Amino acid sequence: MSAYAQFAFPQLPGMIPEPGKAEAEGLTKLITNLFDKWNLTGEEQLDLLGLSANSRSLLSAYRKGGKSIPSSRDTMERVAWLLTIHKALRLLYPRNPEIRYTWVKRRNQALNNLTPMEIMRQGGILGLTLISRHLDHQRGI
Q1: In angstroms, what CA-CA distances link 40 with 26, 73, 80, 105, 133?
Q2: Among 4, 10, 85, 86, which residue's Cβ finds the most Cβ atoms within 10 Å?
């Protein structure tokens, strides 16, 4: 965010502040752990983070702690939506980790028999938002 934007709009709704080094490392660890629990392929992980297929080597660097996920607005929004989806699944299935961690790859009649993963990958940030809102609806929000 530019210095002007920080001055003029210090608490704009929906603004995601740029994480510090420790926060970025923590987010990277959270996301890589989530991807492991969801049993995602490298291609799926790259798509969800909005990274190109040429960035495959970054995934291992994230796992080893040698590099943190980019702090770009796009990536931070994606990470925020992914963590929101994870939180909703934890609330919906608190006693059933099998459903909680396989839900993203299960066909869903409410989603026209698509998997949430297909929607998130094809729709980008909008797809992540749609899945998050779908889960909110399931929770009665």
Answers
A1: 20, 23, 18, 9, 22
A2: 85
